[in-house]
Amino acid sequence: MSKKIEFEYEGTKYCLEYSRDAIKVMERQGFDLNKFMSQPMTSIDLAFEGAFLKNHRNIKATKVKDIYQALGNKNELANELLDMISETYNSLFEDEENSGKNIEWKTV
Description:
The chain is mainly alpha-helical and 108 residues long. It is built from four helices and two strands; from the N terminus they run ββαααα.
């Protein structure tokens, strides 16, 4: 999970990114990656709000909406959010490097 979106709004610097915990919160709120393009009104709102959870958890929803309205190139923003979310989902299936705790398993 290395991609981030950075910007400044009203003198405050923001760094938007996702974590597995942020995605879990989004899913509990109704986010479904498979419906991202078929239900863009809901999906983009949840994706944008969810991007604040990792680094700016206490930001008010009204401020998030104001920031979204002020950002340009929303089509590219939606694509970047989708890429970042996908990257987070893909991280579920990667083994932790150098953890020494990977248990070998087999089907019998």
